[in-house]
């Protein structure tokens, strides 16, 4: 029975230096022309802020949308169609015949790269050349769509003027072109609707009623990564764990800081601190009050832990966003102001270790006292039995 190539899995290969050279050459050739035709294309500008601004601006003029992506895009790219389409797209985009160097890559480097596939079909993930080829392969479809649209790899968000336009675009332009490229749409993610009435998910953000939020799936994925880094079975030094947490915090925070996520970042910060306290105290009980009192937020900050909320607030100050002001409590006459930092003890990690050692010593002394009471009780019982006899 023939293998169903539409169900091929994603795969990886070892990258070679020639792949990066070929990818950079293709980007130099295609990017300037793509920038002129599609300034919002992901091969030109992958900055989330500009993408979100594009959605906000065009949602007013084009109140309806079509959301679709391609099923198993990377594994489904046909090796026989890809080289032919590259030459055709090159002529359409640059309006010139292919150069000698481009023909050389089409004849040698690209076929050698495609031959590494174990399934005789598809592109590996994680390769720069795969990223470029996958972006170029669908440029013919991009040229066919006359409406404003956004694209991230194989994810499309097309802006439409009326309710019937999404269906017409799908039937007359998108599906015929995908059939020509031997690709299929993902029916599970095929959606159409109206902005400000239906939620639109794109590149990890949710757009609804003029506001952007972080997708719940992305929040749960981030929590799982944090939980994995703070498993009690791991015996990494504290600095190494905090460094790993900071890498996740900085990546997540700087990507999603453009959304309306102040409260979400506050909740995630508290979750991260809770997991770190649990790891440092080696206590399975995440509601350990003693750990919270010793490892305060300021102590964790001094230990080097970053904050998602700090990233958001720094970005807000830069863009001069206005947060809701909290009223200050008035001070009665005759009272003097005491700095908040002086009201709390300043703990460091050595004192925290000493506290844990003292706690263990108290447990040991308590067990010794219990043993002494038992011995005295046994002695009294033995003395009473001897007296009675």
Describe this structure in words.
The chain has 389 residues and is of the alpha+beta class. Helices cover 56% and strands 8% of the residues. A 4-stranded antiparallel beta sheet has the order 2-3-1-4, sandwiched between helices. A hairpin with a 2-residue loop joins strand 2 and strand 3. Helix 10 runs parallel beside helix 14 and helix 11 runs antiparallel to helix 14. The longest helix has 40 residues. The protein is elongated and about 115 Å long. The N terminus is likely disordered.
Mind sketching the topology for me?
Blueprint: H1 17-37, H2 48-61, E1 64-69, H3 73-76, H4 81-94, H5 100-114, H6 128-137, H7 139-144, E2 149-152, E3 155-160, H8 165-180, E4 191-194, E5 200-202, E6 205-208, E7 211-214, H9 216-229, H10 238-256, H11 262-281, H12 289-294, H13 297-302, H14 308-319, H15 349-388
Antiparallel strand pairs: 1-3, 1-4, 2-3, 5-6, 6-7
Helix pairs in contact: 1-5, 1-6, 9-10, 9-11, 10-11, 10-14, 11-14
What's a quick, concise take on this entry?
The chain has 389 residues and is of the alpha+beta class. The protein has helices at 17-37, 48-61, 73-76, 81-94, 100-114, 128-137, 139-144, 165-180, 216-229, 238-256, 262-281, 289-294, 297-302, 308-319, 349-388; strands spanning 64-69, 149-152, 155-160, 191-194, 200-202, 205-208, 211-214.
């Amino acid at each position: 029975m023939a293998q169903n190539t539409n169900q091929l899995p994603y795969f990886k290969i070892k990258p070679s230096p020639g792949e990066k050279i070929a990818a950079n050459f293709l980007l130099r050739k295609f990017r300037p022309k793509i920038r002129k035709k599609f300034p919002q294309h992901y091969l030109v500008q992958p900055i989330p802020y500009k993408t979100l601004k594009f959605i906000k601006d065009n949602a007013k003029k084009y109140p309806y949308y079509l959301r679709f992506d391609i099923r198993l895009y990377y594994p489904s790219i046909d090796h026989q169609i890809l080289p032919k389409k590259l030459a055709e797209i090159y002529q359409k985009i640059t309006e010139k015949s292919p150069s000698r160097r481009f023909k050389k890559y089409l004849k040698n480097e690209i076929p050698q790269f495609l031959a590494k596939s174990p399934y005789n079909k598809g592109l590996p993930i994680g390769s720069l050349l795969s990223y470029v080829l996958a972006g170029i392969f669908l440029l013919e479809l991009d040229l066919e769509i006359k409406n404003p649209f956004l694209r991230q790899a194989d994810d499309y968000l097309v802006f439409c003027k009326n309710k019937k336009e999404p269906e017409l675009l799908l039937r007359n332009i998108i599906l015929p072109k995908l059939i020509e490229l031997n690709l299929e749409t993902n029916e599970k993610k095929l959606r159409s609707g109206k902005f400000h009435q239906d939620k639109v998910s794109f590149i990890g953000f949710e757009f609804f009623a003029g506001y952007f939020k972080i997708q719940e799936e992305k929040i749960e994925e981030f929590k799982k990564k944090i939980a994995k880094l703070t498993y009690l079975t791991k015996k990494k030094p504290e600095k190494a764990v905090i460094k790993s947490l900071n890498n996740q915090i900085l990546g997540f925070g700087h990507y999603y800081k453009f959304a309306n996520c102040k409260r979400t970042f506050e909740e995630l910060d508290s979750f991260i601190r809770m997991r770190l306290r649990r790891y440092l105290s080696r206590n399975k009980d995440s509601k350990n009050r003693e750990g919270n009192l010793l490892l305060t937020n300021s102590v964790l900050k001094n230990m080097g832990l970053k904050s998602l909320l700090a990233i958001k607030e720094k970005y807000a100050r830069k863009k001069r966003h206005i947060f809701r002001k909290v009223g200050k409590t008035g001070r009665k006459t005759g009272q003097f102001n005491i700095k908040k930092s002086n009201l709390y003890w300043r703990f460091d990690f050595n004192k925290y270790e000493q506290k844990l050692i003292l706690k263990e010593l108290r447990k040991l002394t308590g067990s010794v006292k219990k043993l002494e009471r038992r011995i005295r009780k046994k002695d009294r019982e033995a003395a009473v039995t001897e007296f009675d006899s």
